[in-house]
Write a structure and sequence with these properties.
The protein is of the alpha+beta class and 105 residues long. The chain contains two helices and seven strands; from the N terminus they run βαββαββββ.
């Protein structure tokens, strides 16, 4: 089991960056299509960040089942995190804008 909040905080710490803004939703159940949504706007307050992190403070099975957490977290360093899933495994993927090849300069 993984904790979505702890997982996010680890990625932020390992990459020495902070959240710029975010737009996420969590599927509560597979059958009733109930979703819980949260947004974190640019220039958020400490209280808004606390609420956002509280929203992510849940355990999920990162190696079995379908994807439950969706969305994007934009980071202040110009990169972003997106939720990915493959064959029942789910994780945050750190996306970096690729460098422009020399032949295009």
């Amino acid at each position: 089991m993984r904790n979505a909040k702890k997982e996010l905080l680890e990625i932020l710490a390992n990459n020495f960056t902070i959240i710029k803004c975010a737009n996420l939703y969590y599927e509560v159940g597979y059958e009733d299509n109930e979703e819980q949504k949260i947004k974190l706007s640019v220039n958020y307050t400490d209280l808004q960040l606390d609420a956002f992190l509280e929203f992510l403070d849940f355990e999920y099975d990162a190696g079995y089942g379908g994807q439950r957490l969706f969305g994007i977290v934009w980071l202040k360093d110009g990169t972003w995190l997106s939720r990915r899933e493959y064959d029942g495994s789910e994780w945050w993927e750190h996306n970096v804008l690729p460098e422009i090849p020399e032949e295009l300069m």
